[in-house]
Amino acid sequence: MSLEIIKSLVDELTTLHITLGVQPSDLVDNIFEDCYLESKSKKTADGVVFEITFQEIDEGERPSNVTMRYTYNQDRYLVLIEQKVATKRFSVQWDRSSCIQSKIEKLEALLVANLPKRQVAAIMATMPKDFLQLSSKLQLVA
């Protein structure tokens, strides 16, 4: 069992749990830079969606508009980052849930390979409640 990898995964999960992520107030400050064109926000039932559009030069040396969409939950956690270049559709750049699930699965796999199931279940049950809600497998353990 690689204790360094386990420690790294635990550190990454801890950071995800205690860090809200970049906030709209930080992003809106960019609007004063020349390449930024527009920002808008919308409150939803689940939280807030913030979009900011800027212009960059593409591979063909032509200006292209890029829109970044940041989605936040009611607790102000950044949960999703999407990007749209020119007239293309938005594509996911980062997803908090997927990131957490991936790290939990890696951690659990490392633990299961080296510890009794009961001990792994006890360790996994110490995960934060918001992490437990992301994984039905973890909910069964907890």
Query: Which structural class is indicated by helix and strand composition?
Result: alpha+beta
Biggest sheet, strands in spatial order? 1-2-3-4-5
Q: Which stretches are low in confidence, meaning pLDDT under 50 for 5 or more residues running?
A: none
The major β-sheet equals:
5 strands, antiparallel
Order of helices and strands: HHEEEEEHHHH
From the spread of the alpha carbons, the general shape counts as elongated
Look at the structure and give the mean pLDDT: 90
Q: Which radius of gyration do the C-alpha atoms yield?
A: 19 Å
Number of domains: 2
Count of β-strands: 5
| Share of residues in helices | 25-40%
**Estimated share of beta-strand residues:** 25-35%
Write the layout of secondary structure elements.
Elements: H1 3-18, H2 24-28, E1 36-43, E2 47-57, E3 63-73, E4 78-85, E5 91-95, H3 96-112, H4 117-124, H5 129-132, H6 136-141
Structural summary, described in words:
By secondary structure, the chain is α+β, with helices and mostly antiparallel strands. The chain folds into 2 domains: 3-19 and 97-141, no CATH class; 24-95, no CATH class. The chain is built from 6 helices and 5 strands. It has helices at 3-18, 24-28, 96-112, 117-124, 129-132, 136-141; strands at 36-43, 47-57, 63-73, 78-85, 91-95. It has a 5-stranded antiparallel beta sheet. Helix 1 (3-18) runs antiparallel to helix 3 (96-112). The protein is elongated and about 60 Å long. The mean pLDDT is 90.
